[in-house]
Specification:
Layout lengths: L5 E6 L9 E7 L12 E4 L1 E9 L4 E8 L6 E7 L20 E7 L6 E5 L10 E7 L16 E3 L5 E4 L6 E6 L8 E3 L1
Antiparallel strand pairs: 1-2, 2-5, 3-6, 4-5, 6-7, 8-9, 9-12, 10-13, 11-12
Length: 185
């Protein structure tokens, strides 16, 4: 008698995500009992739901990635030591503890540091800031713009990348409307 085997693929395949996603788990033969979220383990994530895909031996396993993971993967496996293990109709157990699939995640927001371009007070001159992110930005619109920043007691005139890293930018503001000017990002 042969034990049933499982395989899985993540959706979205080949991308990094910070949102809930699904694995599709396929068994090579019908199971006696329907898998539940308690039958799976997700390292760096939480299994939230398991739904049978009609007319197949496939199941959609929904996972929410763990928070504050800078660069990692969610690994999905069938949990070992279950009180009601997954078995085929002949009673053969599905192998447990083996990674079925992984999904790349990044759930940690970039951290930002900003400093004035010039140390000391600025009088009757534009106020510029150097803004640095701790990781490269993947910006959906293509680049940072003035709309991504707010200047208190002034306006943001331009945002310029300082190098190709997508981590360092110069944020320029014209002369302030009053002597005390501050900036928030």
């Amino acid at each position: 008698m042969k034990a049933p085997t499982a395989s899985a693929a993540s959706n979205p395949v080949g991308t990094v995500t910070n949102r809930p996603f699904d694995f599709v788990v396929s068994f090579d033969e019908p199971l006696k009992n329907t898998p539940t979220k308690d039958d799976f383990t997700a390292v760096n994530g939480t299994v939230t739901e398991v739904v049978s895909i009609t007319g197949s031996n496939n199941y959609k396993v929904s996972v929410t990635p763990a928070a504050e993971v800078a660069s990692g993967v969610v690994s999905l496996s069938i949990k070992s030591g279950s009180a009601t293990p997954l078995i085929d109709r002949a009673g053969n157990p599905v192998a447990t503890g083996i990674t079925l699939a992984t999904q790349a995640i990044d759930t940690l927001a970039p951290r930002i540091k900003a400093r004035p371009e010039v140390d000391g007070p600025v009088k009757n001159e534009p106020i510029n800031f150097i803004v640095e992110f701790d990781e490269a930005l993947d910006i959906a619109s293509g680049s940072l713009s003035t709309g991504n920043f707010t200047a208190r007691n002034g306006t943001v005139k331009s945002v310029t990348a300082l190098d190709a890293s997508r981590q360092r930018y110069k944020v320029a503001s014209p002369m302030p409307a009053c002597p005390a000017s501050s900036w928030t990002g």
